[in-house]
C-alpha cells in the first residue's frame, strides 16, 4: 500500500493540494443498536485520522446512544429513507474523501484504507467494494435482483460495475458535491452508479469480505418493494439521461403497431379501391401520429438532457479533487 492513508488528518476545510487529506466516514443508520458501536470502533481503528459520522434516521432503539458512546459524530435526518440520509450527509459534511458504509457490521472496515488508497493513487472518483462472503448467501432474492439490475444498467448505460447495490464505497469530493441526489430509499446506490456512468467518471471496484448481520439486527431492505423501486429508478433515469433512446423505443413500438393495423386496410384498398374498415384506418393513423410525436419528444428532450449533462460536468470541474 502507498503512503496515501498516512496523509489523513483533522481539518475544517478541504485540504489544499499537497497537504494531508481529510476523510469522512459516513454511516446512515436506522435501528442499528446491535452493531453500530462496533462499526464505529472498527472504522476508528482502521482510519485513526478520519471523522466518523453516524446519521440517525428516526431510530426507535438506542442507536444514537451506542454511536455516541463509541465516539462518533451523531447527526439526524428526519426524512425517512436511506437516500434522504445520503443526500443530507453529502451536502452537510466537508471532506476530501467520503467513505460510505452501512451500520450493520456486514462490511469490513479493514478494507477502508484499500478503498481510499485506490481512489487517491489512481485519481478516481469512486471505488465500490464488491461483496464477497457468507453474507451474500443469506438472501438469495437479493443476489438474483442485484445480478439483474447490474445487467440492465450495463445494457442501458454501459459497463462499469458488477455490484451496483453495494453500500460500501469511497468517493471523491468532486463526486460528492456534484452528485444531484434525488432518491429517498435504497435506490440511492443505483443513482450513484448511473451518475458516474453518465458523466463517464473514473471508477473502480475492489472485492471485500461481506459478513452476516448480528443475530438481533434486521435488514430494512424489502426484496420486492425496494426491488421495484430500484427498477423504476433505472427506467426514470434512462428516460431523463438518454431520452432519445427511451422515446425512440416507444416510437418504434407504436410505428410497428400502426403498420400492423394498417397493412390489411391498405391491401384491401389496393385490391378493391375501397376502405371498408374505416375505424381501423383511423386507429392506425392515430397510432402513427403518436409514434411521430414520441420521436419528436425524444429529439427535444435529448437536447435538454445534453444541456443538463454539460451543467453537471461543469460543476464537477469547478471542484478540486483530493
Give your account of this protein's structure.
The structure is a single chain. With 322 residues, this protein is α/β, with parallel strands linked by helices. Helix content is 51%, strand content 12%. The chain contains ten helices and seven strands. It has helices at 36-46, 63-69, 82-92, 112-121, 140-157, 173-178, 188-198, 223-241, 243-272, 278-318; strands at 23-29, 51-56, 73-76, 97-100, 126-132, 169-172, 203-209. A seven-stranded mixed β-sheet has the order 3-2-1-4-6-5-7, with helices on both faces. Helix 2 links the parallel strand 2 and strand 3 (73-76). Helix 5 runs parallel beside helix 8, helix 8 crosses helix 9 and helix 9 (243-272) packs antiparallel against helix 10 (278-318). Mean pLDDT is 89; it is low at 9-16. One of its GO terms (molecular function) is transferase activity. Residues 25-176 form the Glycosyltransferase 2-like domain.
